[in-house]
Amino acid sequence: MMHQVIEIGRTQTPEAVLYWILGPLAVLAALGMVVVKKAVHSAILLAWVMISLAIFYIAQDAVFLGIVQVVVYTGAVMMLFLFILMLVGVESSESLTETIRGLRPIAIVAALGFGGLLISLIGHATLGRSFVGLTDANAGGNVQALAGLLFSKYVWAFEVVSALLITAALGAMVLAHNHRIIARPTQRDLATARFRGTSLAKAAGLPGPGVYALHNAVDVPALLPDGTPAQASISATLKARGDVIDSRPFQLSTIESEEE
Amino acid sequence: MNMLTSLMLLPLIGALLISAIPTTKSLLAKQMTLLTTILVAVGVIVMTLRFDRGKTDLQFVETHSWIPTFGINYSVGVDGIALVLILLSALLAPIVVLSGWNESNGGRWSAKTFYILVLVLETMIIGVFSANDLFLFYVFFEAMLIPVYFLIGGYGTGQRNAAAVKFLIYSLFGGLLMLASIIGLYVLSGEQGAHTFNINALSQLQMSSTTQNLLFLGFFIAFAIKAPLWPLHTWLPDAAQSATPGTSVLLLGILDKVGTFGMIRYCLTLFPEASKTFTPMILVLAVISIIYGAFLAIGQKDLKRLIAFTSISHFGFITMGIFAMTSQGHSGATLYMFNHGFSTAALFIVGGWMMSRRGSSKISDFGGLQRVTPVMAWTFFFAGMSSLALPGLSSFVSEFLVLVGTYTRYPVAAIIGTFGIVLAALYILIPIQRSLHGPTMPGNEALSDLNVREKIAIAPVIAVIIGLGFYPSPLLNIINPASTHTITQAGFTDPLAQIDPKAGK
Amino acid sequence: MTSNSLVYLIALPLFGATVLLLAGRRSDKWGHIFGTLMSASSFAVGVYLFIQMLGNSDGQRAMTQKLFNWISVGSFQVDAGLLVDQLSICFVLLITGVGTLIHIYSIAYMSHDLDRRRFFAYLNFFIAAMLLLVLGDSYLNLYVGWEGVGLASYLLIGFWNQKPTYATAAKKAFVANRVGDMGLSLAIMIAFATLGTVSFDGVKEHASHASTGALTAIGIMLLVAATGKSAQFPLQAWLGDAMAGPTPVSALIHAATMVTAGVYLITRSNFIFDLAPNAQLAVAVIGVITLLFGAIIGMAKDDIKKALAASTMSQIGYMVLGAGLGPAGYAFAIMHLLTHGFFKAGMFLGAGSVMHGMNDEVNMRRYGGLRKFMPITFATFGLGYLAIIGVPPFAGFYSKDKIIEVAFNAGGIKGITLGSAALLGAMITAFYMTRVVILTFAGSKRWDDKAHPHESPFLMWAPMVLLAFGSVASGFFFSRGDSLKNWLEPVVGGHMAHEAELLSPAVVSILALVLVVIGVGFAIIKYLLNEVPQVAPTDVTVFTKIARRDLLQDDFNEAVFMRPGQAITRGLQTADTTLIDGAVRGVGRFAVGAGNILRTTQTGFVRSYALWILVGAIGLVATIWVVTL
Amino acid sequence: MNPANYLYISALLFTIGAIGVVVRRNAIVIFMCVELMLNACNLAFVTFARINGNLDGQVVAFFTMVVAACEVVVGLAIIVTIYRSRRSASVDDASLLKR
């Protein structure tokens, strides 16, 4: 082969370039993931690490896995993470000050020791000095070869894993299922509640934002018949962000009326 | 089907039937339990009659493969020693049920549960005495603890939980040591042939003396806890104090015999050399038990604890007889196990009636019962006489055989042990004087004497104690071949009388 | 020879006891008659056997009956067998004869007691056990009877056990007896270990082959047994307290029969003692110590029964001394035992009769001048008195003087010492027995007006008369032509070749008589010619005080055995809870404590658990690292 | 270049993930760190597959992905459930295991 390795235990130079660019980036991203305050940022950095890994997979003749990595991990799993983050609250950011005494120094020392040990182990190992390469194994195509293994040697594990997937799906459904504590209110119940409530103010339903207001926009509170802005008509999120534009009351001309 | 297996299944079937009846029908549960235990007793008596007294090997043998991977068999069979102990268990069980008719009332659970536990326990006991496979023995040995644990913890009095836990942990500790030894034997058997738990095969193993000593200790400590031998005895007084009288009878009368039975069956058979090595030490412990138990019994203020300490003294005698390595000592020890079962049963049963009537187990609360309840006082007195080994009662024969058998080989141990005779008089007569004699204490005037059920329950016990006192041959004939066989297997012969014709004058 | 009727001797009274105990209150009406009948029929069987024996020649008189094989393990073979020979038949007749008389006496004596039926059950049981003791053909069979009589004694001393002191006395008797029993069981063990058998025949046959050391050990242990049962020094303390039992019991058990079992045991074991001179000497020494000990206590006692009990102790001392003198003394020991059985039982019954008439008063200082009110009692008691102090031709003269004579002739210093002590004892006996008689029957009345002394009913005095007859005539009868000695010869061995006698019988008799007269004289001077105070004077010498305290026997036992025993018990109890159980609970506490410490690592924060996992992983990797490099 | 170099990256990533698991309190971030550790392992497997010249390592990596997917599904469902009742995704708040 023309691209035969020059020296045993060495791959071609382009891969080294790839490695030296993507590797540090991936490590940096991973570090960032641990360090940043906001969970969303962590998620995005993780996605970057995963994509880097996918590229590494492909570079190492694991084309199928690289694709799966992108589709399943970066696509599905990360989306799931982000989805849950939305559910739980995007804005939730934790303070990075440690509450459990002594945990962080021990953790960092332990992790450094662990990493150091691992790396020195790898360094001592004689791995890769004479690597075989997947050229033969992938001769009929990577996907075909994997499928051959999956449906012959690993068929039992494959089936078990499939059962696990189904179980996990079922389990997630069971866990996420919301048990009703009280009976679901009927329309009749809702109507009764509206009219028997503490005041009749909400009996007619809340106004949408922007109604009778200066602008017909979601960030402008509706005006009540007396000209005061109805704060309740605006989404709590907008309010919390401080994105409410105009909540000035409308000055009505005085009309003599005794009606209430 | 084999008799032993059927006899083991019978109480289990009874327990299953009882579990099917409603909780409220406690009377029916009692009647069914009584019926079952009587059936078992009849079965065991029939088996005893069919036992061939001339043979020394196991009889009624039955073997099925159980877990072939590990060479574990369901294998049962009895020799004379085991048969006598099974007979003891089977005879005492109906007496316990009948005498403790209302014992389950104060319990945490229903009467039904109590009797199910008793029946399950009976199965285990028969199993543990008849097992011929070390693994099977271990299973019964440990499983036996569970019904007792619940019987003490669920139906006892006072600090029953603490006592039950103490009992369980003590026994489990010993059991684990034994398990280690059992595994050791199993591994050795694999190195020297096929992996097996068969006792006969295991007794043929070649072992270095260190190995043998260590394995022996594992077994011996387990049995010494069960027996209980000083200084591993402290669970017994607590358990006896907290348990109901019926449970105490099962515990001290039958269950603890597994310890001394195990010493004969396993320690001596499997490790004859180690047994020889440790004999002096064990004899010292046995003698200490005799004296120590007696002294502590003298000092007790609680009737149940007192009986427990007398048992510690008696178990000292049994252990001494076993390790005297003479046929008199062995036969005496085995007979002692049987007789101690009955005399302790009598003490606990009658003492239990006294305590339940008076509502207290403190000896000082009694007094002058002889005047108020003559029959009860008489039976208690009789039980006491049996416990102090009055000649003419069964325990005398066994105690004397033990002493004589020990004397021929280890005179010093026997002489010190004989002091136990004097102390026995004290620890029996002091409580008898305090509880039966003297003026009637306030609170005792209206106690009722024994009723018909109680008389029926205690009568067989008294009959056995007197009968075997005068005519122990039926049991001795069963025991003798087995004990001689064990002695021979362990490599001993009886010492000869020391007549020296030349010294004559 | 074998006989089938031996077992009835025991079975009849045993049957009586069983029936009376099982029938309970239902037999209240006829229980006493039934019990007496059972005892009497046993006596009849005894007489029948005796006559049968008389018809046989000397060597053929012993009869055996094997009932069944009792214990059989290896070489330890014991049959339940009975043996009646010339020695046992004496006892059989004494036990059943005196026993029956005392049964009859008790019918009247106990007539007011609600539990009379139970009393008769115990008496029957005692007769059966005592017969087993003397009829057993091996030491182990004897042992059964030995403890049986101990039990009967316990039950009868504690017959009125609602009184705490009586219950304590019963317990004391049983425990002291148990100490003796320990000796007996050790003797049996040694016998089996050395001779390989425990039957009388077997031991007799093999004894000569055994070493002297072993025989001495057996002998000493038998002596221990005898001291326990026969209230000999140092196990004598229980006898005085045993007087708590009803008086017929004191007469039968604690005077005539049970307490003499030790003498029987030693005599029966003559084949051992004869080969173990040291043990035999020990027997004689114990006998002498006890005869003086009892006599000294007897001088100080005001309680009539306790005075008689001390006298019993002393008289048994004579018997033990006799038995310790070897073949020359056995027959006289037994003779004294039999005559003593008559006169002491008679005197105890007399004491009972006095108490019966005096509202159960036992203090002799509150008697006085009773001879007018109880002539028959006085007469019978007086005859017994003459017998015990050894006035010829009453029974005691023949038996006691013979023992003294044999003692003197035992040779050397030993003979002189033993003989002099025995003579001294005779003088003291004369003194204290005279004192008893004078205090009770002579002098002026010292009782208060509540007492109405009267003669006892026929059923009580008839047995006393019969026993008095025995105390008059038995000595003469036994010694005429050495009849008893010849009768016993096949069992206890014959006459030894007479060595040079130190003192001839006549000299001994004269010496003894002189001393007796001196003793009687002292007593007359002190108690008849001087006023006797109603309350014992307290300004007495320290010796009197010690004698009144039973020569400090109880104080000794208390200080040497009881208090240390109690201390040991308490100490062991503390050790048991603190050390042994403490160690056990310490293990538990250690586990809980360790758990508490380790539990602090369980913060509940999942992250700290994760950290520990990480640390564990480091450990794992490090291990791999170390192992692979 | 020696393919073993990938192993160094794998080790670094794994360690970083481990630190994250221990240090962070937000359950979702902890989860992401776990995913990072799994991915690091996958990289090692793929590298091993290449070094040894057979595809078994890749198959294992594939299974890891599937199992990781399962884990994420169930884990996130648990987080949601906890959040629903405790209004917090901090793992320190769910420390009921302590005494």
TrEMBL record, chain C:
NADH:quinone oxidoreductase/Mrp antiporter transmembrane domain span: 138-421
Cross-referenced Pfam families: Proton_antipo_M, Proton_antipo_N
Residue ranges of every copy of the NADH-Ubiquinone oxidoreductase (complex I) chain 5 N-terminal domain listed in the record: 70-120
Entry-linked InterPro entries: NADHpl_OxRdtase_5_subgr (IPR018393), ND/Mrp_TM (IPR001750), NU5C-like (IPR003945), Proton_antipo_N (IPR001516)
Record's keyword annotation contains Transmembrane helix: yes
Membrane-crossing segments per the record: 6-23, 30-51, 86-107, 119-136, 142-161, 182-200, 249-267, 279-300, 373-395, 415-438, 458-478, 506-529, 609-628
Keywords: Membrane, Transmembrane, Transmembrane helix
Membrane topology field: Multi-pass membrane protein
Major location category of this protein: membrane
Subcellular localization: Membrane
Gene Ontology biological process terms, A to Z: ATP synthesis coupled electron transport; electron transport coupled proton transport
GO molecular function, one term: NADH dehydrogenase (ubiquinone) activity
Protein name, UniProt field: Unannotated protein
Source organism per UniProt: freshwater metagenome
TrEMBL record, chain D:
Coiled coil (UniProt feature): none
Record-annotated membrane-spanning stretches: 6-23, 28-48, 60-83
Keyword Transmembrane helix set for record: yes
Signal peptide bounds: none
Membrane topology of this protein: Multi-pass membrane protein
GO molecular function per UniProt: oxidoreductase activity, acting on NAD(P)H
Pfam families for the chain: Oxidored_q2 (PF00420)
Compartment annotation: Membrane
GO biological process, one term: ATP synthesis coupled electron transport
GO cellular component, one term: NADH dehydrogenase complex
Keywords: Membrane, NAD, Translocase, Transmembrane, Transmembrane helix, Transport
Family: Belongs to the complex I subunit 4L family.
PANTHER family the record matches: NADH DEHYDROGENASE SUBUNIT 4L-RELATED, NADH-UBIQUINONE OXIDOREDUCTASE SUBUNIT ND4L
Listed HAMAP family: NDH1_NuoK
Protein name, entry field: Unannotated protein
Organism: freshwater metagenome
